[in-house]
Input
Amino acid sequence: MAITTEMIKQLREATGAGILDCRKALENANGDYQKAIDFLREKGLATAAKRSDRKASEGVVELYNHGNGRVGVMVEVNCETDFVGRSEAFREFAHEIALQVAAASPVYIREEDIPQEVLDHEAAIATAKAREEGKPENILPRIVEGNLNKFKDEVVLLRQKYIRDEAITIQQLLNDTVLKTGENIVIRRFARWALGESTGE
Output
């Protein structure tokens, strides 16, 4: 199938990827638009992995409040250069992360941030519940693993489904932004406050 300039332009607008990358993706996908997007997403994953060891110390602290000040979020997102830090794609990503934190209340950024005792506690609860329901001992490990994965999907920001598009996770949104900006991007930290919520102190 012949790849037209219009097809490249459309893909570029949707993904923010470079012209050559868009052409290659379309050629690879034989002109199939959705497959080309998937190809760029996968490339984004590889690009993100390659760039992840580069120092990211520029960026933005994004503030967001929701429901007339009932929920407030502060998130720090870093990139490598001030130039990208000021770019629309990067600023938009930081804003989307703040929205995600406000809406989905994650507790951790990455899976490895979860303390082992929290995972042990969740595993113990899942085991006790499965036994109470009379599940056979030999399938308990599978049930526990399933419960732990569900727990991680709920509390880990990068594993959460993106609130605007449940077909992708925040990790995929991050990879797409790395592809668009060409820089390592790190969600450094976040804080979320809800009116009247106990701080646990």
In short: The domain at 58-110+157-194 is CATH 3.30.479.20 (Tetrahydropterin Synthase; Chain A). Strands lie at 58-66, 71-79, 161-162, 165-169, 186-194. The chain has a mean pLDDT of 86. Residues 32 and 192 are 41 Å apart (CA to CA).
